[in-house]
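User: Here's a chain of 93 residues. Predict its fold as tokens.
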Amino acid sequence: MRSRFAAFAVQDEAYLLRTWHPATRPDGVAFERGMRWTELEIEAVSGGSPFHTDGTVTFRARYAYRGQPGEMHEQSRFSRHAGAWVYVDGTVG
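Assistant: Prediction complete.
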């Protein structure tokens, strides 16, 4: 989760696509012009140990959009694919 947040912050599309599950991966990542991701707060984690194949991460991501502060709250689902953890999807709330 932290590495994907950092990839969004520096707009590393290749990394984001590589760490996205093939079943839900988009063709590309549309970065929002004027968006600057500033802080990640992990609220809860379930699964995700070496013994799990699925897990969730609930987080708050803070940003500034064209100078205005904002926050996104999401529960993300991750799954192991080809031995690596990949992002499946998320519910924003």
